[in-house]
Amino acid sequence: MNELKITKLTTPIHHGEGPYWCPESKVLLYTDTFKATLYKLKTDRDTPMSPECFKLPNHDTVGFAIPIKDKKDTWVVCGDRHMYELKWPDKGKVQFKQIHTVEKDKPKNQFNDGKADIQGRIWGGTLKRETDLSVPEFGGSLYMFDHNLREHEKIPNVSISNGLAWSKDNTKFFFIDSATKDIEKWDYDAKTGEISNKKIVINIKEHGYAGIPDGMTIDEDDNLWIALFGGHEVIQVESRYGRILRNIRIPASYVTSVTWGGPNFDILYVTTSQAHLDEKQLKDEPDAGSVFALSGLGVKGVPPNQAIIQKYIFKAYYNTFKNNFEDIVASFLTAPLTFILVMTVVFSYIVLMMLQY
């Protein structure tokens, strides 16, 4: 019989969000939304070290971060309305450059939650944030960004774009607009990214839960794990019929998000917030804003997807050609037939990829 264990991993921050556990580096990346700061926590030690941090310069918020496939220590980071490439090695210089901007006509909007799908396309939602941090209704959208970062609006008129997940067979897509308190289920075409036939798995309010649904993940049995912001809990929900399977009380009222990690993907990492607590509440909840690890759950999660950005693949080919120009010329002079064959294969591959997208 597994015994649930809740372990506090970090000291509190203002508003923890967006956890992502990277299996290659054993790093848990998470954000402090309103401090526009990313944290990187190494989890391959019995006693975790203090996390490293990186503050986005001249930003009010940071939404989420996803590693870029085949680019070591490199992440797509969304802050305010902008998308960046962040190269953040353990040693050496941090590199940070803008690669896209969304909703240029909506200066109060910002990215909130986001993930990559099985094809490596980035799904990111926006919301409208007033200066007092309130969120008006229907100010945002959910977008899918293809490999060339072209944006495709999937769900318009979203109030608080939050949790996303896909079924194990990638035929269902789950989404949370926190303002509705609904957990949505859509039919999903993994090849095209099209969603259709929206249904409601469960409404949190109708089941008597406090707070609103926030971040979400899914386990290998296609059960959803949902953070309740203002509800003090993480709940496990059967995704087919909407049955509540488990309630886990977290030592913080404002539970923000969840993700699976660990060598066997059987640890549930949970982020929390202290942003809405007054002085008395902070004394009652000294661990609010910390990251927690839940073990002994008796279930495993699904490894997260990584982002694929096509333009950088073509750029890599160009840089390889440029950096090895002399060798390429020498190859042509000594073995012209081999050179022609290799270049034909490379060119054909590039053309096929361009036609696909």
UniProtKB/TrEMBL annotation:
<feature type="binding site">
    <location>
        <position position="162"/>
    </location>
    <ligand>
        <name>a divalent metal cation</name>
    </ligand>
</feature>
<dbReference type="Pfam" id="PF08450">
    <property type="entry name" value="SGL"/>
</dbReference>
<keyword id="KW-1133">Transmembrane helix</keyword>
<dbReference type="GO" id="GO:0004341">
    <property type="term" value="F:gluconolactonase activity"/>
</dbReference>
<keyword id="KW-0472">Membrane</keyword>
<keyword id="KW-0862">Zinc</keyword>
<comment type="similarity">
    <text>Belongs to the SMP-30/CGR1 family.</text>
</comment>
<feature type="transmembrane region" description="Helical">
    <location>
        <begin position="328"/>
        <end position="352"/>
    </location>
</feature>
<feature type="domain" description="SMP-30/Gluconolactonase/LRE-like region">
    <location>
        <begin position="16"/>
        <end position="273"/>
    </location>
</feature>
<dbReference type="InterPro" id="IPR005511">
    <property type="entry name" value="SMP-30"/>
</dbReference>
<dbReference type="GO" id="GO:0005737">
    <property type="term" value="C:cytoplasm"/>
</dbReference>
<dbReference type="GO" id="GO:0030234">
    <property type="term" value="F:enzyme regulator activity"/>
</dbReference>
<keyword id="KW-0378">Hydrolase</keyword>
<dbReference type="GO" id="GO:0019853">
    <property type="term" value="P:L-ascorbic acid biosynthetic process"/>
</dbReference>
<feature type="binding site">
    <location>
        <position position="130"/>
    </location>
    <ligand>
        <name>substrate</name>
    </ligand>
</feature>
<dbReference type="InterPro" id="IPR011042">
    <property type="entry name" value="6-blade_b-propeller_TolB-like"/>
</dbReference>
<feature type="active site" description="Proton donor/acceptor">
    <location>
        <position position="214"/>
    </location>
</feature>
<keyword id="KW-0812">Transmembrane</keyword>
<feature type="binding site">
    <location>
        <position position="17"/>
    </location>
    <ligand>
        <name>a divalent metal cation</name>
    </ligand>
</feature>
<dbReference type="InterPro" id="IPR013658">
    <property type="entry name" value="SGL"/>
</dbReference>
<dbReference type="GO" id="GO:0005509">
    <property type="term" value="F:calcium ion binding"/>
</dbReference>
<keyword id="KW-0479">Metal-binding</keyword>
<feature type="binding site">
    <location>
        <position position="214"/>
    </location>
    <ligand>
        <name>a divalent metal cation</name>
    </ligand>
</feature>
<keyword id="KW-0963">Cytoplasm</keyword>
<protein>
    <recommendedName>
        <fullName>Regucalcin</fullName>
        <ecNumber>3.1.1.17</ecNumber>
    </recommendedName>
</protein>
<dbReference type="InterPro" id="IPR008367">
    <property type="entry name" value="Regucalcin"/>
</dbReference>
<feature type="binding site">
    <location>
        <position position="112"/>
    </location>
    <ligand>
        <name>substrate</name>
    </ligand>
</feature>
<keyword id="KW-0106">Calcium</keyword>
